[in-house]
Amino acid sequence: MHSNRLSLRASRRAGTAGVLLVLMAAGSAPLAARPFDVSDRIFVTVQQGEDLLIHFGVWNYGYNNPGLSPYPTRVGLMVLGQDPAGRPVGTIPDTTIEYFPGLVFEGWLESLDGSVSLPLYDSNAARLGMAQGLLVVTRASVASSGGPPVPAAAINALQFLPVSTSEALFGSHIGSYDNAAVIRLHNWGADFRIGLGPGWTVGGSISEPGIGGLGPVETSGITGRVTVDNPEPSTWLLLGGGLTLLGWLARRYKSKP
Would the pLDDT of 231 be above 70? Predict the structure, then answer.
């Protein structure tokens, strides 16, 4: 009888240890999950808690301003998405610009290795009293070829930086066609759908306007790979299965005399 109890306890410990190993593996998997490329999709929904990473290049700024520093001191951002019909709408103070409360992103301009990270600036968010780095989603319209303007929503931001900071940010990648730096957008608010529909891609719905600096010519950046950082669905299935099994073991343990 005593040996049976010991065997039962040992099997319970082994079962619990196995479940804990499953949970540990599932918990570590999101950290190792890689961002997935959405550049060529028509739409992508950036869910709350996800990061959108926009790789881009600024080589054409230096090309159009020969004899001056190729490192820009002003970088803009515009992201176009679906008009979230049905959501509440507010007005930016002292303007006629409408925005969608509850849609909030935080943005950074970062070097490829992450050693330089600068918060983006949104004048509309600033008028609402929000901290620097936070970005709001405003109403917009996009002209379509041969048709009426299409209702849309937009994220707009800007970053000013001295030449020395720009050199640290872009570094030796300054000549890269479309992978010299990264803009990271973290979604703190409701889900937001990026893209404008057939004829557009997610990459084509994102631009870096207003690349300027010491030179007289202003250009637009070249959007490259666009990714969403999101744990793989299999990770959450594994985690959910482990938790279910752990709950079953706990109930079984209580039911035993």
Answer: no
